[in-house]
Automatic annotation (TrEMBL):
Cross-referenced InterPro entries: Amidase_CS, Amidase_dom, AS_sf, FAAH2
Known EC number: 3.5.1.4
SUPFAM superfamilies: Amidase signature (AS) enzymes
GO molecular function: amidase activity
GO cellular component labels: endomembrane system
Enzyme class (EC, first level): hydrolase
Protein name in the entry: Amidase
UniProt keyword list: Hydrolase
Domain Amidase: 51-491
Keyword Transmembrane: no
Protein backbone atom coordinates (compact mmCIF):
# COMPACT_ATOMS: atom_id res chain seq x y z
CA UNK A 1 0.00 0.00 0.00
CA UNK A 2 1.31 3.46 -0.90
CA UNK A 3 1.38 5.88 2.01
CA UNK A 4 0.48 9.57 1.76
CA UNK A 5 4.05 10.28 2.86
CA UNK A 6 5.35 8.44 -0.20
CA UNK A 7 2.95 10.16 -2.59
CA UNK A 8 3.82 13.72 -1.57
CA UNK A 9 7.33 13.82 -3.11
CA UNK A 10 6.03 11.99 -6.19
CA UNK A 11 3.42 14.68 -6.81
CA UNK A 12 5.83 17.54 -6.08
CA UNK A 13 8.44 16.20 -8.47
CA UNK A 14 6.26 16.44 -11.56
CA UNK A 15 7.54 13.06 -12.81
CA UNK A 16 5.05 10.31 -13.58
CA UNK A 17 5.52 6.88 -12.04
CA UNK A 18 2.75 4.52 -13.20
CA UNK A 19 2.10 1.51 -10.99
CA UNK A 20 1.57 -1.74 -12.94
CA UNK A 21 -1.92 -3.18 -12.79
CA UNK A 22 -2.41 -6.55 -11.17
CA UNK A 23 -1.78 -9.22 -13.75
CA UNK A 24 0.23 -6.99 -16.07
CA UNK A 25 2.12 -9.21 -18.48
CA UNK A 26 5.63 -9.84 -17.21
CA UNK A 27 5.08 -9.23 -13.52
CA UNK A 28 3.81 -12.75 -12.85
CA UNK A 29 6.50 -14.39 -14.96
CA UNK A 30 9.79 -15.71 -13.66
CA UNK A 31 11.59 -13.53 -16.20
CA UNK A 32 10.89 -10.36 -14.24
CA UNK A 33 11.52 -11.76 -10.77
CA UNK A 34 14.62 -10.50 -8.99
CA UNK A 35 17.70 -12.65 -8.60
CA UNK A 36 17.00 -12.72 -4.87
CA UNK A 37 13.47 -14.01 -5.49
CA UNK A 38 14.68 -16.58 -8.01
CA UNK A 39 17.29 -17.87 -5.57
CA UNK A 40 14.61 -18.30 -2.90
CA UNK A 41 12.29 -20.08 -5.35
CA UNK A 42 15.08 -22.40 -6.45
CA UNK A 43 15.97 -23.24 -2.85
CA UNK A 44 12.31 -23.93 -2.08
CA UNK A 45 11.93 -26.21 -5.09
CA UNK A 46 9.26 -24.00 -6.67
CA UNK A 47 11.10 -23.91 -9.97
CA UNK A 48 14.18 -25.45 -11.56
CA UNK A 49 17.05 -23.69 -13.25
CA UNK A 50 16.21 -25.56 -16.44
CA UNK A 51 12.72 -24.05 -16.36
CA UNK A 52 14.04 -20.55 -15.69
CA UNK A 53 16.57 -20.88 -18.49
CA UNK A 54 14.05 -22.19 -21.01
CA UNK A 55 11.66 -19.36 -20.16
CA UNK A 56 14.41 -16.75 -20.53
CA UNK A 57 15.51 -18.19 -23.87
CA UNK A 58 11.92 -18.26 -25.10
CA UNK A 59 11.49 -14.62 -24.19
CA UNK A 60 14.73 -13.64 -25.94
CA UNK A 61 13.73 -15.53 -29.08
CA UNK A 62 10.32 -13.84 -29.01
CA UNK A 63 11.25 -10.25 -28.15
CA UNK A 64 14.89 -9.58 -29.00
CA UNK A 65 14.37 -9.17 -32.72
CA UNK A 66 13.03 -5.69 -31.99
CA UNK A 67 15.63 -4.82 -29.33
CA UNK A 68 18.85 -6.60 -30.43
CA UNK A 69 20.31 -6.77 -26.92
CA UNK A 70 21.71 -10.32 -27.05
CA UNK A 71 24.33 -10.20 -29.78
CA UNK A 72 25.98 -13.58 -29.04
CA UNK A 73 23.51 -16.18 -27.72
CA UNK A 74 24.89 -19.26 -25.99
CA UNK A 75 21.69 -21.19 -25.42
CA UNK A 76 22.94 -24.78 -25.73
CA UNK A 77 25.63 -24.28 -23.09
CA UNK A 78 23.16 -22.31 -20.95
CA UNK A 79 20.74 -25.23 -20.91
CA UNK A 80 23.57 -27.60 -20.02
CA UNK A 81 24.69 -25.28 -17.21
CA UNK A 82 21.11 -25.09 -15.92
CA UNK A 83 20.83 -28.88 -15.80
CA UNK A 84 24.15 -29.02 -13.96
CA UNK A 85 22.90 -26.41 -11.49
CA UNK A 86 19.78 -28.44 -10.79
CA UNK A 87 21.88 -31.54 -10.23
CA UNK A 88 24.18 -29.62 -7.88
CA UNK A 89 21.21 -28.40 -5.87
CA UNK A 90 19.84 -31.92 -5.68
CA UNK A 91 23.17 -32.92 -4.10
CA UNK A 92 22.67 -30.24 -1.45
CA UNK A 93 24.88 -27.52 -2.92
CA UNK A 94 23.92 -23.86 -2.56
CA UNK A 95 25.89 -21.00 -4.07
CA UNK A 96 24.99 -17.29 -4.35
CA UNK A 97 23.79 -17.44 -7.98
CA UNK A 98 23.21 -21.18 -8.40
CA UNK A 99 20.89 -21.70 -11.35
CA UNK A 100 20.12 -18.01 -12.03
CA UNK A 101 20.14 -16.91 -15.71
CA UNK A 102 22.41 -13.93 -16.44
CA UNK A 103 23.98 -12.11 -19.36
CA UNK A 104 27.50 -10.76 -19.92
CA UNK A 105 28.70 -7.72 -21.84
CA UNK A 106 30.31 -8.67 -25.14
CA UNK A 107 33.65 -7.19 -24.10
CA UNK A 108 34.27 -9.92 -21.49
CA UNK A 109 36.22 -12.97 -22.63
CA UNK A 110 34.23 -16.22 -22.61
CA UNK A 111 35.81 -19.38 -23.96
CA UNK A 112 33.99 -20.57 -27.06
CA UNK A 113 32.43 -17.19 -27.87
CA UNK A 114 33.85 -14.29 -29.88
CA UNK A 115 35.14 -11.18 -28.13
CA UNK A 116 35.13 -8.36 -30.69
CA UNK A 117 34.36 -5.11 -28.85
CA UNK A 118 32.35 -4.41 -32.01
CA UNK A 119 35.55 -4.09 -34.07
CA UNK A 120 35.10 -5.73 -37.51
CA UNK A 121 38.78 -6.69 -37.72
CA UNK A 122 38.29 -8.99 -34.72
CA UNK A 123 34.92 -10.50 -35.57
CA UNK A 124 36.37 -14.02 -35.42
CA UNK A 125 38.60 -13.63 -32.35
CA UNK A 126 38.08 -16.38 -29.78
CA UNK A 127 39.76 -15.92 -26.37
CA UNK A 128 41.64 -18.79 -24.74
CA UNK A 129 40.23 -18.32 -21.23
CA UNK A 130 37.29 -16.81 -19.37
CA UNK A 131 37.56 -13.33 -17.92
CA UNK A 132 38.03 -13.42 -14.16
CA UNK A 133 34.51 -12.03 -13.65
CA UNK A 134 32.99 -14.67 -15.92
CA UNK A 135 34.82 -17.30 -13.88
CA UNK A 136 33.39 -15.77 -10.71
CA UNK A 137 29.88 -15.85 -12.17
CA UNK A 138 30.25 -19.52 -13.07
CA UNK A 139 31.78 -20.38 -9.70
CA UNK A 140 28.79 -18.70 -8.04
CA UNK A 141 26.53 -20.98 -10.10
CA UNK A 142 25.14 -18.48 -12.64
CA UNK A 143 23.81 -19.67 -15.99
CA UNK A 144 25.21 -17.48 -18.80
CA UNK A 145 22.61 -16.98 -21.54
CA UNK A 146 24.95 -15.09 -23.86
CA UNK A 147 26.66 -11.78 -24.55
CA UNK A 148 25.12 -8.31 -24.88
CA UNK A 149 25.78 -5.65 -27.48
CA UNK A 150 28.29 -2.78 -27.27
CA UNK A 151 29.48 0.19 -29.38
CA UNK A 152 32.59 0.10 -31.53
CA UNK A 153 35.55 -0.21 -29.19
CA UNK A 154 33.21 0.53 -26.25
CA UNK A 155 33.65 4.22 -27.10
CA UNK A 156 30.17 5.67 -27.34
CA UNK A 157 27.09 6.60 -25.32
CA UNK A 158 25.12 4.36 -27.69
CA UNK A 159 25.43 0.65 -28.58
CA UNK A 160 25.83 -0.04 -32.27
CA UNK A 161 28.53 -1.57 -34.43
CA UNK A 162 29.03 -3.06 -37.87
CA UNK A 163 29.13 -6.65 -36.62
CA UNK A 164 26.01 -6.83 -34.47
CA UNK A 165 23.96 -3.81 -35.45
CA UNK A 166 22.04 -1.43 -33.17
CA UNK A 167 20.50 -2.05 -29.77
CA UNK A 168 17.22 -0.18 -29.34
CA UNK A 169 15.79 1.29 -26.18
CA UNK A 170 12.98 -0.98 -24.89
CA UNK A 171 10.85 2.10 -24.10
CA UNK A 172 11.22 3.70 -27.54
CA UNK A 173 12.91 1.76 -30.32
CA UNK A 174 13.88 4.99 -32.06
CA UNK A 175 16.15 5.90 -29.15
CA UNK A 176 19.41 4.53 -27.84
CA UNK A 177 19.69 2.09 -24.95
CA UNK A 178 22.91 3.84 -23.94
CA UNK A 179 26.50 2.70 -24.02
CA UNK A 180 28.73 1.05 -23.70
CA UNK A 181 26.78 -1.48 -21.58
CA UNK A 182 23.62 -0.72 -23.54
CA UNK A 183 22.91 -4.31 -24.49
CA UNK A 184 23.03 -5.36 -20.84
CA UNK A 185 20.66 -2.61 -19.70
CA UNK A 186 18.19 -3.34 -22.49
CA UNK A 187 18.35 -7.07 -21.73
CA UNK A 188 17.49 -6.47 -18.08
CA UNK A 189 14.62 -4.14 -18.94
CA UNK A 190 13.18 -6.82 -21.26
CA UNK A 191 13.51 -9.70 -18.80
CA UNK A 192 16.40 -11.39 -20.60
CA UNK A 193 18.09 -12.73 -17.45
CA UNK A 194 18.03 -11.46 -13.88
CA UNK A 195 21.51 -9.91 -13.79
CA UNK A 196 24.25 -8.67 -16.09
CA UNK A 197 27.82 -7.48 -15.81
CA UNK A 198 29.25 -4.46 -17.61
CA UNK A 199 32.01 -1.89 -17.35
CA UNK A 200 32.29 1.86 -16.86
CA UNK A 201 34.78 4.61 -17.65
CA UNK A 202 32.46 7.33 -19.00
CA UNK A 203 29.16 6.25 -17.50
CA UNK A 204 29.02 2.97 -19.41
CA UNK A 205 27.14 1.23 -16.58
CA UNK A 206 25.23 4.22 -15.26
CA UNK A 207 24.04 5.84 -18.51
CA UNK A 208 22.40 2.69 -19.96
CA UNK A 209 20.76 2.04 -16.57
CA UNK A 210 19.42 5.62 -16.59
CA UNK A 211 18.18 5.30 -20.19
CA UNK A 212 16.53 1.89 -19.68
CA UNK A 213 15.14 2.24 -16.16
CA UNK A 214 17.32 -0.33 -14.36
CA UNK A 215 20.00 -0.31 -11.68
CA UNK A 216 23.79 -0.31 -12.00
CA UNK A 217 26.77 0.18 -9.73
CA UNK A 218 30.13 1.64 -10.71
CA UNK A 219 32.42 0.23 -8.00
CA UNK A 220 35.31 2.05 -6.40
CA UNK A 221 38.29 2.03 -8.77
CA UNK A 222 40.22 -1.20 -8.22
CA UNK A 223 37.53 -2.94 -6.16
CA UNK A 224 36.70 -5.61 -8.76
CA UNK A 225 39.33 -7.40 -10.85
CA UNK A 226 39.03 -6.76 -14.60
CA UNK A 227 41.37 -9.33 -16.16
CA UNK A 228 39.85 -10.63 -19.39
CA UNK A 229 37.99 -7.38 -20.15
CA UNK A 230 40.58 -6.30 -22.69
CA UNK A 231 40.41 -5.21 -26.36
CA UNK A 232 41.01 -8.12 -28.72
CA UNK A 233 43.34 -9.73 -29.45
CA UNK A 234 45.25 -8.58 -26.40
CA UNK A 235 46.27 -11.15 -23.79
CA UNK A 236 44.20 -11.27 -20.59
CA UNK A 237 46.77 -9.72 -18.28
CA UNK A 238 46.04 -8.53 -14.71
CA UNK A 239 46.53 -4.84 -15.47
CA UNK A 240 45.03 -1.85 -13.63
CA UNK A 241 43.66 0.51 -16.31
CA UNK A 242 43.20 4.10 -15.21
CA UNK A 243 39.58 5.14 -14.54
CA UNK A 244 37.92 1.97 -15.89
CA UNK A 245 35.98 -0.45 -13.68
CA UNK A 246 33.78 -3.52 -14.08
CA UNK A 247 30.51 -3.76 -12.21
CA UNK A 248 27.00 -5.19 -11.76
CA UNK A 249 23.65 -4.37 -13.35
CA UNK A 250 20.25 -5.53 -12.08
CA UNK A 251 16.58 -4.66 -11.69
CA UNK A 252 16.81 -3.96 -7.95
CA UNK A 253 19.32 -2.40 -5.58
CA UNK A 254 19.52 -5.55 -3.44
CA UNK A 255 20.44 -7.58 -6.52
CA UNK A 256 23.27 -5.14 -7.23
CA UNK A 257 24.70 -5.89 -3.80
CA UNK A 258 24.28 -9.63 -4.35
CA UNK A 259 26.22 -9.46 -7.62
CA UNK A 260 28.84 -7.03 -6.33
CA UNK A 261 29.65 -9.49 -3.55
CA UNK A 262 30.41 -12.06 -6.26
CA UNK A 263 32.49 -9.64 -8.36
CA UNK A 264 34.42 -7.73 -5.69
CA UNK A 265 37.92 -8.68 -4.71
CA UNK A 266 41.46 -8.45 -6.07
CA UNK A 267 42.81 -10.52 -8.92
CA UNK A 268 44.15 -13.82 -7.56
CA UNK A 269 47.23 -13.35 -9.75
CA UNK A 270 48.26 -10.05 -8.12
CA UNK A 271 46.93 -8.41 -4.93
CA UNK A 272 44.78 -11.44 -4.27
CA UNK A 273 47.91 -13.39 -3.41
CA UNK A 274 48.16 -11.44 -0.16
CA UNK A 275 45.01 -9.36 0.25
CA UNK A 276 41.49 -10.32 1.31
CA UNK A 277 38.65 -7.84 0.74
CA UNK A 278 36.38 -6.77 3.56
CA UNK A 279 34.03 -3.94 2.59
CA UNK A 280 32.84 -1.77 5.47
CA UNK A 281 29.10 -1.84 6.18
CA UNK A 282 26.83 0.94 5.03
CA UNK A 283 27.14 4.03 7.20
CA UNK A 284 23.41 3.97 8.01
CA UNK A 285 20.44 1.61 7.81
CA UNK A 286 17.65 4.22 7.87
CA UNK A 287 16.99 7.02 5.39
CA UNK A 288 16.56 9.59 8.12
CA UNK A 289 20.14 9.06 9.28
CA UNK A 290 21.74 9.88 5.91
CA UNK A 291 23.44 13.21 5.22
CA UNK A 292 23.09 13.92 1.50
CA UNK A 293 24.35 16.65 -0.83
CA UNK A 294 22.05 17.10 -3.84
CA UNK A 295 23.33 18.62 -7.10
CA UNK A 296 21.31 19.34 -10.22
CA UNK A 297 23.48 21.94 -11.98
CA UNK A 298 26.85 21.64 -13.68
CA UNK A 299 28.84 24.74 -14.70
CA UNK A 300 29.70 23.29 -18.12
CA UNK A 301 26.35 21.93 -19.35
CA UNK A 302 22.64 22.48 -18.75
CA UNK A 303 20.46 19.94 -16.96
CA UNK A 304 17.26 19.03 -18.79
CA UNK A 305 13.94 19.52 -17.02
CA UNK A 306 13.15 15.78 -16.93
CA UNK A 307 16.44 14.92 -15.27
CA UNK A 308 16.18 17.84 -12.86
CA UNK A 309 12.72 16.60 -11.86
CA UNK A 310 14.18 13.15 -11.17
CA UNK A 311 16.87 14.61 -8.94
CA UNK A 312 14.26 16.68 -7.10
CA UNK A 313 12.03 13.67 -6.66
CA UNK A 314 14.83 11.83 -4.88
CA UNK A 315 15.64 14.93 -2.83
CA UNK A 316 12.00 15.27 -1.77
CA UNK A 317 11.86 11.62 -0.73
CA UNK A 318 14.97 12.10 1.40
CA UNK A 319 13.57 15.23 3.03
CA UNK A 320 10.25 13.59 3.87
CA UNK A 321 12.10 10.63 5.36
CA UNK A 322 13.94 12.98 7.69
CA UNK A 323 17.38 12.83 6.07
CA UNK A 324 19.63 15.87 6.21
CA UNK A 325 19.65 17.28 2.67
CA UNK A 326 21.81 20.17 1.49
CA UNK A 327 21.92 21.78 -1.96
CA UNK A 328 25.29 23.51 -1.61
CA UNK A 329 28.54 22.92 0.25
CA UNK A 330 31.89 24.73 0.23
CA UNK A 331 33.45 21.28 0.57
CA UNK A 332 32.40 20.22 -2.94
CA UNK A 333 35.45 20.00 -5.23
CA UNK A 334 35.37 22.47 -8.12
CA UNK A 335 33.21 20.79 -10.79
CA UNK A 336 34.77 22.70 -13.67
CA UNK A 337 38.32 21.70 -12.80
CA UNK A 338 37.12 18.16 -12.09
CA UNK A 339 35.53 17.93 -15.54
CA UNK A 340 38.69 19.20 -17.23
CA UNK A 341 40.84 16.72 -15.32
CA UNK A 342 38.48 13.87 -16.12
CA UNK A 343 38.44 14.81 -19.78
CA UNK A 344 42.24 14.97 -19.96
CA UNK A 345 42.76 11.65 -18.16
CA UNK A 346 40.01 9.85 -20.05
CA UNK A 347 40.94 10.92 -23.55
CA UNK A 348 44.66 10.48 -23.01
CA UNK A 349 43.94 6.84 -22.30
CA UNK A 350 41.19 6.40 -24.88
CA UNK A 351 43.56 6.99 -27.81
CA UNK A 352 46.53 5.09 -26.38
CA UNK A 353 45.99 2.16 -28.76
CA UNK A 354 45.20 4.27 -31.83
CA UNK A 355 47.55 3.93 -34.81
CA UNK A 356 50.55 6.27 -34.93
CA UNK A 357 49.09 7.98 -37.99
CA UNK A 358 45.95 8.95 -36.06
CA UNK A 359 48.02 10.18 -33.13
CA UNK A 360 50.04 12.41 -35.43
CA UNK A 361 46.83 13.85 -36.86
CA UNK A 362 45.64 14.68 -33.35
CA UNK A 363 48.96 16.38 -32.64
CA UNK A 364 48.55 18.56 -35.72
CA UNK A 365 44.98 19.48 -34.79
CA UNK A 366 45.93 20.22 -31.18
CA UNK A 367 48.82 22.43 -32.25
CA UNK A 368 46.41 24.49 -34.37
CA UNK A 369 44.11 25.27 -31.43
CA UNK A 370 44.00 28.82 -30.17
CA UNK A 371 45.65 29.25 -26.79
CA UNK A 372 42.41 30.91 -25.65
CA UNK A 373 40.25 27.90 -26.58
CA UNK A 374 39.23 26.34 -23.24
CA UNK A 375 36.19 24.45 -24.54
CA UNK A 376 35.73 20.81 -23.59
CA UNK A 377 36.37 19.92 -27.23
CA UNK A 378 39.78 21.59 -27.05
CA UNK A 379 40.51 19.89 -23.74
CA UNK A 380 39.65 16.51 -25.28
CA UNK A 381 41.97 17.12 -28.22
CA UNK A 382 44.85 18.28 -26.05
CA UNK A 383 44.31 15.30 -23.76
CA UNK A 384 44.66 12.93 -26.70
CA UNK A 385 48.26 14.06 -27.18
CA UNK A 386 49.29 14.31 -23.52
CA UNK A 387 52.92 13.67 -22.72
CA UNK A 388 53.80 11.50 -19.75
CA UNK A 389 54.77 14.67 -17.90
CA UNK A 390 51.34 16.14 -18.66
CA UNK A 391 49.64 13.01 -17.34
CA UNK A 392 51.67 13.01 -14.12
CA UNK A 393 50.70 16.63 -13.50
CA UNK A 394 47.01 15.84 -14.09
CA UNK A 395 47.24 12.80 -11.84
CA UNK A 396 48.72 14.93 -9.05
CA UNK A 397 45.78 17.30 -9.34
CA UNK A 398 43.46 14.30 -9.18
CA UNK A 399 44.99 13.35 -5.82
CA UNK A 400 44.15 16.82 -4.52
CA UNK A 401 40.56 16.26 -5.61
CA UNK A 402 40.49 12.90 -3.86
CA UNK A 403 41.61 14.65 -0.69
CA UNK A 404 38.79 17.17 -1.11
CA UNK A 405 36.28 14.33 -1.54
CA UNK A 406 37.50 12.70 1.67
CA UNK A 407 36.82 15.94 3.49
CA UNK A 408 33.37 16.21 1.95
CA UNK A 409 32.47 12.66 2.95
CA UNK A 410 33.38 13.46 6.53
CA UNK A 411 30.33 15.75 6.48
CA UNK A 412 28.09 13.90 4.00
CA UNK A 413 27.35 10.22 3.33
CA UNK A 414 26.38 10.51 -0.34
CA UNK A 415 25.97 12.91 -3.24
CA UNK A 416 22.89 12.72 -5.48
CA UNK A 417 23.30 14.10 -9.01
CA UNK A 418 22.41 13.47 -12.68
CA UNK A 419 24.02 10.76 -14.78
CA UNK A 420 23.52 12.61 -18.06
CA UNK A 421 21.57 15.81 -18.79
CA UNK A 422 18.71 14.08 -20.67
CA UNK A 423 16.76 10.84 -20.90
CA UNK A 424 17.56 8.52 -23.81
CA UNK A 425 18.01 10.44 -27.06
CA UNK A 426 17.27 9.36 -30.66
CA UNK A 427 19.82 7.15 -32.42
CA UNK A 428 22.62 9.23 -33.95
CA UNK A 429 25.15 7.22 -35.94
CA UNK A 430 27.18 10.05 -37.41
CA UNK A 431 30.66 8.48 -37.61
CA UNK A 432 32.21 11.72 -36.35
CA UNK A 433 31.08 12.23 -32.74
CA UNK A 434 32.27 15.84 -32.85
CA UNK A 435 29.53 16.52 -35.44
CA UNK A 436 26.76 15.13 -33.23
CA UNK A 437 24.67 17.39 -31.02
CA UNK A 438 22.70 16.72 -27.84
CA UNK A 439 19.36 18.49 -27.54
CA UNK A 440 18.75 19.71 -23.99
CA UNK A 441 15.29 21.29 -23.83
CA UNK A 442 15.66 22.80 -27.28
CA UNK A 443 19.26 23.96 -26.99
CA UNK A 444 22.05 22.03 -28.74
CA UNK A 445 25.31 21.10 -26.99
CA UNK A 446 28.36 19.16 -28.22
CA UNK A 447 27.52 15.46 -27.93
CA UNK A 448 30.53 14.48 -25.82
CA UNK A 449 29.99 17.27 -23.30
CA UNK A 450 27.35 15.11 -21.62
CA UNK A 451 30.14 12.97 -20.15
CA UNK A 452 30.96 15.55 -17.47
CA UNK A 453 28.35 14.15 -15.04
CA UNK A 454 29.78 10.63 -15.35
CA UNK A 455 33.22 12.07 -14.66
CA UNK A 456 32.18 13.44 -11.26
CA UNK A 457 32.58 9.95 -9.78
CA UNK A 458 34.94 8.43 -12.36
CA UNK A 459 37.84 10.91 -12.11
CA UNK A 460 38.46 10.39 -8.35
CA UNK A 461 37.49 6.68 -8.54
CA UNK A 462 34.41 6.92 -6.30
CA UNK A 463 31.59 4.36 -6.19
CA UNK A 464 28.31 5.44 -7.80
CA UNK A 465 24.95 3.65 -7.93
CA UNK A 466 22.48 4.42 -10.72
CA UNK A 467 18.85 4.25 -9.60
CA UNK A 468 15.53 4.83 -11.38
CA UNK A 469 13.89 8.13 -10.43
CA UNK A 470 10.68 8.17 -12.46
CA UNK A 471 9.76 8.97 -16.04
CA UNK A 472 9.95 11.95 -18.33
CA UNK A 473 6.75 13.51 -19.74
CA UNK A 474 7.35 11.36 -22.85
CA UNK A 475 7.37 8.22 -20.69
CA UNK A 476 11.12 7.62 -20.86
CA UNK A 477 13.01 6.37 -17.79
CA UNK A 478 14.98 8.90 -15.77
CA UNK A 479 17.71 7.90 -13.33
CA UNK A 480 20.13 9.57 -10.93
CA UNK A 481 23.45 8.50 -9.44
CA UNK A 482 24.26 8.16 -5.76
CA UNK A 483 27.98 8.80 -5.24
CA UNK A 484 29.61 7.46 -2.08
CA UNK A 485 32.97 7.48 -0.29
CA UNK A 486 35.84 5.50 -1.77
CA UNK A 487 35.70 1.79 -0.86
CA UNK A 488 32.44 2.36 1.03
CA UNK A 489 30.36 0.94 -1.80
CA UNK A 490 27.76 -0.47 0.56
CA UNK A 491 26.73 3.07 1.56
CA UNK A 492 25.31 4.21 -1.82
CA UNK A 493 23.97 0.70 -2.39
CA UNK A 494 22.05 0.78 0.89
CA UNK A 495 20.79 4.28 0.12
CA UNK A 496 19.60 2.98 -3.26
CA UNK A 497 17.74 0.13 -1.56
CA UNK A 498 16.00 2.48 0.89
CA UNK A 499 15.02 4.89 -1.90
CA UNK A 500 13.62 1.97 -3.90
CA UNK A 501 11.35 1.13 -0.98
CA UNK A 502 10.12 4.72 -0.80
CA UNK A 503 9.77 5.90 -4.41
CA UNK A 504 9.67 2.64 -6.36
CA UNK A 505 12.15 1.17 -8.76
CA UNK A 506 12.14 -0.85 -11.96
CA UNK A 507 9.02 -1.06 -14.09
CA UNK A 508 8.87 -3.20 -17.21
CA UNK A 509 8.32 -1.44 -20.55
CA UNK A 510 4.81 -1.82 -21.87
Amino acid sequence: MTSIETLIPLVRSGISWPVPEVGTVGFMEWNFQTAEELAAALRAGEVTSAELTDEAIARIERDDKAINAICVPDFDRARAAARAADQARARGEDRPLLGIPVTVKESYDIVGLPTTWGIPLHRNYLPAEDAVQVSRLKTAGAVVLGKTNVPLGLQDVQSFNEIYGTTNNPWDHGRTSGGSSGGSAAALACGFGALSIGSDIAGSLRTPAHFCGVYAHKPTLGLAANRGMVPPPGPALPTDPDLAVVGPMARTARDLTLLLDVMAGPDPLTLGVAHHLTLPPARHERLRDFRVLVLDEHPLIATGAAVRAGVNRVADALVYAGARVERHSPLLPDLTEAALLYTQLHFSGAVARFPVEAYEQFRTLAAALSADDRSLGAVRLRGMVFSHRDWIEANNRRELHRHDWRQLFAEFDAVVCPITPTPAFPHDHNPDPTKRRLDIDGVEYPYLDQLVWAGVATMPGLPATAVPAGRSPEGLPVGVQLIGPMFEDRTPLRLAELLEQRIGGFQAPK
